[in-house]
Amino acid sequence: MDLLSKPAIVNYVDDAVAADHIRSARRILVVGCSGGGKSMLSQKLARQFQFTYISIDRDIRWLPGWAERDRAEQRQRIVERIAADRWVMDGTGPSTFDIRVPRSDIVIWVRMPRLVCIWGVVTRWLKHFGRTRPEMAPGCIEKVDWDFLQFIWTFEQKFTPHIVAGLAKHGPNVPVLQLKSRRQMRRLLDLLGSPA
C-alpha cells in the first residue's frame, strides 16, 4: 500500500489554537501554492518573533539564472538550516517533509483558491518586473509563463494529496493550520498582534 492510499490523519487546528502554538513555537513551516502569500506571511512572522527566515526558493533550490541545485545538495542545505533553533521556513516540497515536518512546532498551510494564487503571481511579476524578488535566489528574474500558471491551476488536484499524506506520515502530532482566505490570514495576524 503506498503513502497516498493510506488514510491520512492530520492534526488540523483552528486559528485561535494555532496562534497560541505560534507564540510558543521555535520552528514554523509555511507551505502552499505559489502566489498564495506564504512568503509574505513567513517574513512577517520572522520579523515579529525574531526568527531566521529561510526561503526554499532562495536558500535551497535555485542558483542564479534559474539553475536548479542537485537534489542531494538541496537536502543537505535543508538539514543544515533546520538544525538551527529558531526559524520560519517558507516552501512546500513534500519530498523533504520527512526532515522538515518532524522538526517543526507548527505547519501553516496557505491554501488559497487558485484564482487568488494566479492573481498573486501576476501582481508579484508586475511588481518585480525585470528584477529578482527578495525571497528568490539572486539572478532569478521574476517570470510568469504558461507552465507556471498551469502548475498553479492544477496544484490543489495534483499536490494536495501529497501534502496531506506527507503531513500525516511525518508529523501526525504537529499542529497544522489551513489558511483558506486572505481574511483568515489577516485574522491570524490580528490574533498574533502583527501589523497586517
How would you sum up this structure, described in words?
This protein has 196 residues and is α/β, with parallel strands linked by helices. It has one domain: Rossmann fold. Helices cover 47% and strands 15% of the residues. It is built from eight helices and eight strands, in the order βαβαβαββαβαβααβα. The strands form two sheets. Strands 1-8-7-2-6-3 form a six-stranded parallel beta sheet. A two-stranded antiparallel ribbon has the order 4-5. It is globular, with a radius of gyration of 16 Å. The model has no long low-confidence stretch (mean pLDDT 93). This is AAA family ATPase.
Number of helices: 8
* Cα-atom radius of gyration: 16 Å
Indicate the structural class.
Answer: alpha/beta
Indicate the CATH topology. Answer: Rossmann fold
Spans with pLDDT under 50 lasting ≥5 residues? Answer: none
Shape: globular
CATH class: Alpha Beta
CATH architecture: 3-Layer(aba) Sandwich
Oligomer designation: single chain
* Average pLDDT: 93
Report the CATH superfamily.
Answer: P-loop containing nucleotide triphosphate hydrolases
InterPro entries: Cytidylate_Kinase-2, P-loop_NTPase
Protein name: AAA family ATPase
